[in-house]
Structures are given as C-alpha cells and as structure tokens.
Design a protein that fits this description.
12 helices, 72% helix, globular
C-alpha cells in the first residue's frame, strides 16, 4: 500500500465522511440479524390493520373525517411505527454501547470524533425506521388505503419523524446508567403518545388539556402530515409549521445528544 508521510491514506467516501464507518458497522451487524425481524415487519402491519382497521372499523359505521376507519388509522400507524422503531433503536442499543458492550468507547479510541459516532448511529436508526415503515406502507398499499400520489412522500416524512424522535432519545439514553429508566420512557412517553396523538382517533375528541399535550408531541405532527399525504387532504395544521416543529425537535435532540456523548466519551 502506498504510504503518504508514514500513514496510510484514508481513501473513498468513508474516508471523507467517517460517520459512514459507524453506519457500516451497524449494517454489518444487522446483516446477521435481519431475518429475525423480516417476517414480523410484514406480519405485524397485517395483523394491526386487520385487528384495528377491519375489526374495530366494523363498529365505526360512519367512518372518521369522511373516510373509512381503516383509511383513517393507516397513516397514523405508519407514523407510530416510525416512533416505536426510532425509540427502540435509540434506547437499549445506545445504553448498551455505553454500559455493557462499550462499543462507543472502542470507536472513540479510533480517529472517529463524537459527531461521527453519533451521526453514524443515527443514520443506522433512520435506516431501520425507513425499512420498517416501507414494509407497513407496502401492506397499506395492498389494502388500498393510499388515495393520493402524495403518499410517495410518506417515506421522507417517516425519516423526519424518526430523526425528531431518535435524537432526543439518544440524549436521554446517554444520560442514564440503568435500563430501568428506559422502561419509564416507554411507560410515560411512548405509550401515551401512541394512544393520544391522533393515531386511532382525532385529538379533537380529547379534553382540552390532553389535546394540547398531543399537539406538543412530535408524533401528532407526523401523524397529521402522513394522513394528509396518504389521503390527499389538507392537514389540520400548516405543512411548514409541522415540518419546522419536527425539525426543531431533531436539532435540539442532536445538540443535547452530542453534548451527552461528548461528556461520556471525551476525557
């Protein structure tokens, strides 16, 4: 190998963008485990739509907002899938990389910087969010629940939802030392958001206080955008407002996560 100044040159895209090395590590690891979740990636959306959309929807004769109950909940389920995958991939794997297998410390001992480690892992989380949501979107298309060409932008919306959720969870997971705190995250944040952020029914039917809590959550904004795109209707709030709100969560979460990673990894 040709040497330059006594050091091997860093060639290729990975050399120019070191975070890709962390993404590559995640993809290589996932290559050994993807089969375990591939079947459930299609089975769970199918069972969810049959159980909620068809089963419960049979009792909602008039539909919701002028559409059938199945058509109403499918975009919300896609957005909530992005939420659940983003939280799942940003909680225990992050805590484990600090506390148990200590992968981050091995990465920090290499030329990788804190931003590279964080960015590469976030990129892998977004990959998982996208693939899981695409499986749900495919099942939804087979059920005929997508009624607008704007449904093509749902994968992009899913990526933004995943980014707005994962970066704050990265910061939280990097701040705790026990997985008991992650259980609290699911109990007091993920489950309430899934239930009360417009996935299964309009938030307008909630009491005022709970309604505003739903508006604060990033999931409601993602649900409203996905529903508008899938059904070809106007969202309840402005599209730029939704996008800016989700982007604000993503940026704030990134800054907090980078600060927590730096505190843990930089001596």
């Amino acid at each position: 190998m040709e040497q330059t100044g006594g050091r091997a040159p860093r060639a290729g895209l990975v050399g120019r963008i070191p975070a890709l090395a962390v993404l590559e590590y995640g993809l290589v690891s996932y290559r050994r485990t993807w089969r375990a979740g591939a079947f459930s990636s299609f089975l769970l959306p199918l069972l969810t739509m049959l159980g909620f959309g068809v089963g419960v929807g049979a009792y909602v004769d008039s539909g919701v907002g002028g559409v059938s109950y199945l058509d109403f909940i499918v975009p919300g389920l896609i957005a909530s899938t992005a939420l659940q995958v983003a939280v799942g991939e940003s909680s225990w794997p992050v805590l484990g990389s600090f506390e148990w297998i200590r992968t981050y410390f091995a990465m920090a001992a290499s030329p990788l910087r804190v931003g590279d480690i964080l960015g590469g892992h976030v990129a892998f989380v977004l990959f998982r969010v996208l693939t899981s949501s695409l499986a749900f979107l495919l099942v939804a298309a087979l059920f005929g629940t997508l009624h607008s060409p704007w449904a093509l932008v749902v994968p992009l919306l899913v990526l933004l939802i995943g980014l707005s959720i994962s970066t704050p969870v990265f910061a939280y997971s990097a701040s705790v030392r026990s997985d008991s705190y992650l259980a609290l995250l699911f109990r007091f944040a993920v489950i309430p958001m899934t239930l009360f952020a417009g996935v299964f029914f309009p938030v307008e039917s909630l009491p005022v206080v709970l309604r505003w809590l739903a508006y604060v959550s990033p999931l409601w904004h993602g649900v409203d955008l996905c529903r508008a795109a899938a059904l070809g209707v106007a969202p309840d709030w402005s599209v730029p407002g939704h996008l800016l709100y989700l982007a604000a969560w993503a940026v704030a979460g990134w800054l907090l996560a980078r600060a927590r990673f730096r505190r843990r990894l930089v001596v």
